Amino acid sequence: RDRQEIYQVLDLCLSCKACKSECPSGVDMAKIKAEFLQHWYEHHRIPLRTRLIANITRVNKLGMIFPALFNFFSTSRLTSIPLKALLGFASKRSIPTLGKRSLRSWAGSYLDKLNASLPPGAPEVVLYVDEFSNYNDTSLGITSIRLLNRLGIRIIIVKHPESGRTYISKGLLKKAKRIARRNVELLGGMVSADRPLVGIEPSAILGFRDEFPELVGKDLSTLANGLAEHALTLEEYLDQAFELGKFESSLFTDRKASIKLHGHCQQKAIASTASTIRILSIPENFRVEEIPSGCCGMAGSFGYEKEHYNLSMKVGELVLFPAVREADKDTILVAPGTSCRHQIADGTGRSALHPVEVLYQALK
Predict the structure, then answer these.
(1) Which end of the chain is more exposed for a tag (fewer CB within 10 A), N or C?
(2) At 305, is the secondary structure helix, strand, or coil?
(3) In sequence order, which residues have a C-beta less than 8 Å from that of residue 14 and are 6 or more positions away?
(4) d(CA 216, CA 246)
(5) 34 with 173: CB under 8 angstroms?
């Protein structure tokens, strides 16, 4: 209840989950931090910034009423600097902007037509429209749908809750549990080996395999574990589909390209970057090198917070930023995580792509 020293120590935990896979003891400090914070907030006031970050999906949904106005206030120095100071965000950190329309809105207009172009019996996936792809990275979401369609894969989108990632990361586990239960109840009976749940943002989709089975409660644990077996990152699904011959490498360019990949923390801890490397190598003359980096330093909201900004940038400077700066201007930089791409842009001024964007651009 009053262990201030524990709170201060865990405040510097990035929740990158490297301990889960790299430490011999395999202790998941990110889960311990989230559990501690839940108990802490039962006895202490939840800060405004914590509430804002946890509820960012609601903020973004409201901002989508007038996205241009939202983006102006987020990016204009006249308005963004005092706003960041008021909310406790670093003045040097850029704030994610909104797309012109949500991914769900776009899919509502175009998905049926795209699916109608495919033959009966085409492979199917349930696309998990996470909150980041829906509001911020909408162009990436659209590209993901277009790529899957070009590869002959039918996409099913249902109305499901957000991933709960922001609530988990800020330690608001009671709310995260309710979200996790709704996701599992809705998607558990819909997803199978033949119709997997596929996600664009690693931190969102991997919650189904990592936190959800323990978070939902005993009554839904069997359903959650079954769903976890068929919850895949987009790269994992494309890797499996290619190995099963559902699409051919002949669909892609034969031009040469050099790629440098920075893997997402939770992807490296819960899954692997191996599938990402393999799909980026499908175009026969693409050469992929993985940057031997740990966490990018952004770690969700960690790098946005004013007291963590300097540490966030120092983490980036350990390996990632120098590797990006040393890369040739023609080298394609790739990072599956939305926070990672944001950190690379803020720290180096260079843009990184999601793997599906690289593959879509490589189509003949």
Answers:
(1) N
(2) strand
(3) 265, 295, 297, 299, 302, 315
(4) 34
(5) yes
Q: Residue 274 is encoded by which pair of tokens?
A: 């191996």
> How many Cβ atoms from other residues are within 10 Å of residue 166's Cβ?
25
What does the block give as tokens for 332? Answer: 């394609």
| Cβ–Cβ under 8 Å, residues 337 and 203 | yes
Residue 74 in tokens: 């987020």
Please state the pTM of the whole predicted model: 0.95
SS3 content of the chain, % helix, strand, coil (to 5): 55, 10, 35
Tell which residue, 239, 225, 310, 226, has the closest CA to residue 275.
239
Q: Letter for the amino acid at 95?
A: I
CA dist., res. 227 & res. 66, Å (int): 36
For residue 328, how far is the Cα from the chain centroid?
A: 26
Q: What is the dihedral of CA 243, 247, 251, 255, to 10 degrees?
A: -10
The answer to whether the beta carbons of residues 99 and 136 sit under 8 Å apart is yes
> Would you call 129 helix, strand, or coil by DSSP?
coil
Residue 144: name the closest of 202, 199, 194 by CA.
Answer: 199
The span from the CA of 103 to the CA of 145, in Å, is 10
How many other β-carbons are positioned within 10 Å of the β-carbon of residue 120? 5
Kindly give, in sequence order, each residue whose CB lies less than 8 Å from that of residue 205, ignoring residues fewer than 6 positions away: 128, 130, 163, 197, 198, 199, 231, 232, 233
Tokens of 163: 């991933």
pLDDT of residue 1: 55
DSSP-assigned letter for residue 303: G
Among left, alpha and beta (phi > 0; psi -120 to 50; other), residue 281 is alpha
DSSP E strand stretches across the chain: 124-128, 154-156, 197-199, 231-233, 257-261, 286-290, 332-334
CB-based contacts of 42, cutoff 8 Å, min separation 6: none
Chunk the chain into consecutive blocks of 10 residues (it has 364) and report each block's average pLDDT, rounded to whole numbers. Answer: 84 92 88 94 95 97 97 95 95 96 98 97 97 98 98 98 97 98 97 97 97 97 97 98 97 97 94 97 98 96 97 98 97 98 97 98 97
- The answer to whether the CB of 176 falls within 8 A of the CB of 164 is yes
CB 28 within 8 A of CB 10: no
